[in-house]
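Pipeline run #58 for the internal structure catalog. This entry was flagged by the ingest filter as a single-chain record with no existing model, so it goes straight to prediction. Upstream metadata was stripped on purpose; only the residue string is passed forward. Reviewer on rotation: M.T. Logging verbosity set to normal.
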Amino acid sequence: MSVTTIDLLRHGETEGEGVYRGQLDYSLTRMGLEQMRAHLKNDLPWQQIITSPLNRCASFAEELSRDTGLSLTYVPGFIEMGFGEWEGKTAEEIQKTDQQRFFAFYEDPIRNTPPQAESLMVFQQRCITAWQDMLQQYQQRHILLVTHAGVIRLLLAHILSMPLEAVFHLDVPYACLSRIEVYLDGKNEFARLLFHAGHL
């Protein structure tokens, strides 16, 4: 049986605070970069870095790769959910122009996709496919995955067998660090969450 360890790291504070960033390519603020750097200690456990290609994740991953010599891989499957017409807008703006759809999305996100957005089920399948591909490619390694709140929620829901409707009950603050261990025995997989919103 092989054991693979994955540390999920959400990006830090980002420009465009308060808007639905989704797949728009906002950058980290100076504070956001420092929030992520706070996890760096002398004895880093990682053997591989994987990142969403969006700048708010990739900029930190690239810096870490340069400083440590760790291999870096960009995986588009770990990009944030696409919010369609809501991207770049605040919740208050959306409520003023599309109140019915806004509240319907949070009441039942599976059946109420924002206009022109990626559905939650499509987003879920994209993330799980990228997760499974990563586990096959990097077995028995300790991976740092730098990604987004939505991706982390869906991956945690997947390994904890939570219903998809419950993902917004998971709090994933800026620079949140979570650790998952995955045990693989042939085609059988068992995963457990070791900590969430923790520190090394």
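catalog note: The mean pLDDT is 94.
catalog note: The two ends are 26 Å apart (CA to CA).
status: ready for reviewer M.T.
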